[in-house]
Here is the input.
Amino acid sequence: MVANENSEQTNEKLDVLESTRTVISQALEKLGYPEEVFELLKDPMRLLTVRIPIRMDDGSIKIFTGYRAQHNDSVGPTKGGVRFHPNVTETEVKALSIWMSLKAGIVDLPYGGGKGGIICDPREMSFRELEKLSRGYVRAISQIVGPTKDIPAPDVFTNSQIMAWMMDEYSRLREFDSPGFITGKPLVLGGSHGRESATAKGVTICIREAAKRKNIDIKGARVVVQGFGNAGSFLAKFMHDAGAKIVGISDAYGALHDPEGLDIDYLLDRRDSFGTVTKLFKNTISNQGLLELDCDILVPAAIENQITEQNASKVKASIVVEAANGPTTLKATEILTNRDILLVPDVLASSGGVTVSYFEWVQNNQGYYWTEEEVEKRLEDVLVNSFENVYNTSKNRKINMRLSAYMVGVRKMAEASRFRGWV
Ligand code: GLU
Here is the structure.
């Protein structure tokens, strides 16, 4: 996680929902769909706001606000993570649910998009408080979720322990074991091999595919990773193991830079469960400085609106791969594209997580579990094909990869919504 330092200095509109709508509308137009399809897809079909009262450890009562958005279930049940973060807003959750629909479309899963969030700061809550909040959230949304309705998963600051509490609460409510209600569970509760590192694995595959197109050798390539959470930390490790030099990493409090390459194993060892590590060092640089470092590959793996109109012209990488949701604004996308920087968009690059979540759900439904090798092989196939599909569409249509990813991602749900007679 990183501080959103640049949001105040820019005049650019940073509303993630507005930007998403803009690109969806362009994608639908290129695909030849009429206006009513856009009207349907520009907002989630359902949004539930809940208030969850929790007795805190000190005896006081705190009321937390949470959301669950379900974008479009024409293709299948909706699916997507739940984030616990102080900056969660209704608008953000809506946009995130639309992005989940696009991801499912790009990797061709039988899902629509959903997303949830609770306004809270888990860094300041005890284990017991977090458990109560997780269970309270499930009770509050239980009517609209379920293995064939809407399947939650981890997202920012939520993990397999939180998924376990949520699964347990849902199973108790329904009075039968329901592992398929949620993904990202611990292995012993029906989790899948490879789920924890799946987002980073998917990003790694996208980096490799993008590097091939740009004739960059991963061995010795200089990589900067913004964010040291689930995606960022696994990714730094995978890239390091593949022979790349990680010259910069960051967390919410600052960034580290070493042109000779950082000692990633040491940093992973010292990071806390929220991905904080830079506090241990004196010589830190700012997150802004990090994004402008000399490197070949830049991976924003933190939060939204990091590469903007203000700093896009200072990015030195030849490839930007979005591991986070929404890190690059539309203006910045345009600037990077004009500078011939290959931008692999979030809805493609970060789709490894939901892909392995789908594998987990399939295994839960079958009651038959796969080996780690099987999961890895299937993820590899899905991501390589999806990358190729989006890349080729962008080349054939002479458009950037964000727009081509939206075209690929929106097509199936637009088609399904029409077949169902909704539009
Ligand atoms: N939260 C992750 C995402 O944004 C994963 C969602 C899932 O596994 O369903 O893609």
Observations:
- Residues 1-10 have pLDDT under 50 and may be disordered.
